[in-house]
Amino acid sequence: MSAGWIVAVVEAATILTLVVLLVVGGGRRRALRARVRELERGRRRRRSVLSPEGAVKAVWETASLVRDKGVGGAWRSSISEIANWAQVERPDLVRLAGVDGCVAIVFSDIEDSTALNDRLGDRAFVRLLSQHNAIVTKQVGRHHGQVIKTQGDGFMIAFAEAAQATRCAIDVERALLKRRATPSIVVRIGIHYGSAVHRDNDIFGRNVALAARVAAMAEGGEILVSGSVADQLADIEELDLMLTEPRTVQLRGLAGDHLVASIDWVP
């Protein structure tokens, strides 16, 4: 084979390599641009539940709170913090409302999470929190709800119907009960059903506050519902049979007497 022929072969191979690199590079750039567009769409699109990536992000944000503010600062009043955020930000829940224009608002948090965190240490507690978050978000998705906000160990969730919210709460408690691990997680849940109005109307803020107050009254492992939820469940035999006798309570910051009832969810 002549030297000229060898040079020609080398030149052809070099050109072919460059073409391949250009094609591959262009493909990677196109794939990257497509991924960016997908992420941008994801930012604009509302999700019904937290994605796995979102759950991990929430856990690590929580870990950062522990590091920056200490145990007490990170876990103090999760329900109150979320309720305050909701009343200031006023997320628009109108699209979730049922045919009667109402929405079921759920608050939950882990009982004695500060003491639990102190006993386990930050790293172990964050792992426990990740398991808790996964259980809650899975059940919210199964029952067609939407996670509105998380804060520490607390959740604010919305459903179109009180029955959906109640069934989700029951499944969360049962899933936690079946979780064979030490230590166990004990969660309290409160549910209220009320008008979902536009941002300019302060009735929305009152319903958020009422749901938060009901949750704050619940004991660990208890699902406590407002009178309006109990009324909705009265027409559903399966859930009505789980309702305890309603009782009258005072809710901090809200005038008048309020009816609440517990859900007897334990199988």
Description:
The protein is α+β, with helices and mostly antiparallel strands and 267 residues long. It is 56% helix and 18% strand. The chain contains nine helices and seven strands. The protein has helices at residues 3-44, 52-75, 78-89, 113-120, 122-142, 162-178, 203-217, 227-233, 237-240; strands spanning 102-110, 146-151, 154-159, 187-195, 223-226, 247-251, 254-262. A seven-stranded mixed beta sheet has the order 2-3-1-4-5-7-6, with helices on both faces. Strand 6 (247-251) and strand 7 form a beta hairpin. Helix 4 packs across helix 5 (122-142). The longest helix has 42 residues, at 3-44. The radius of gyration is 26 Å and the shape is globular.
